[in-house]
Amino acid sequence: MKTIIAILRIHTMNRTKEALSKAGLPSFTATGQVYGRGKGKWDAEVMEGVKNNQPEAIALLGPEPRLRLHRMITLTVPDSKVKTAVQEIMNANRTDAPGDGKIFVLPNSEAISIRTGESGDSVLD
Question: What local confidence, expressed as pLDDT, does residue 42 receive?
Fold first, then answer.
């Protein structure tokens, strides 16, 4: 089994939830708000202001990128469903613009149901 962590644009959550559910992967955890940045220095509103030569926007550029609001989801799936989960997340979130997000796939050695004590892939759904 693998744990998938995805950092996504905040407004793509409904598309992501629907895509995963249709793919038979309805179970995941989502955080309300996380802040982060990629390696780019752009922020759409600030860059529009810079393009329009607004001093306030130019002052906001600074030497480092600003932190941006995102949502983070975490799901643990059997090995056989990892490719499907990753592909569905990518399809729901790809805009081909900077800031589409990142997906991390991590090994997971065990999953245990607190209620039943059952363990393994069977507790994933």
Answer: 59
